[in-house]
Amino acid sequence: EVQLLESGGGLVQPGGSLRLSCVVSGFTFSRQAMSWVRQAPGKGPEWVSVVGGSGTITHYADSVKGRFTISRDNSKNTVYLQMNSLRAEDTAVYHCAKGEPLHSWFDPWGQGTLVTVSS
Amino acid sequence: EIVLTQSPATLSLSPGERATLSCRASQSVSSYLAWYQHKPGQAPRLLIFDASNRATGIPARFSGSGSGTDFTLTITSLEPEDFAVYYCQHRSNWPGTFGQGTKLEIK
Lengths: 119, 107
Known about the structure:
The complex is a heterodimer of chains A (119) and B (107). With 119 residues, chain A is mainly β.
């Protein structure tokens, strides 16, 4: 059974940092590009970042470029999202998903972890 | 950026009825369109990809159609578990975008 399990969300003040993790099982992790997709309250999903299978290629949405860093540890079947300089508009549920923009659909997804940026 | 507009925002129907959800793109996305189902607290699930192909394990009551700028998700006979929010997404260009969703609620 394929499973993606996110963790690391929480309440953080503006300007603060959080590190999200997503542990994956059920498919050959190291061969797959992995993305983070977020959904703010009342809005549609928004792709945030992608990392290639080897971890050397990464891309970011303009809204998070320079503040977020995606990485992966293939020995642990885990993908990470380091989020710095957080803003109120980063408040969202963050999902990890197998897939990458332009080249594939997002499938499957994890159920997400909530990040709230507020003072 | 290609904008996807979904309609209606909310659709109120009863089990057994037919649901028709629309997704319109601001410019052509060819057939690079998918539909996802999302229930509260659960992982979003891919239903339809490439406009009309059902993903693995998706019941035959779900079907997708369209190309270019106008797309439709049809659920022929609603089951209680189908009441959820549905999103369309394109991958015609970088980085792809999602629609704002249609909430399918029980009437």
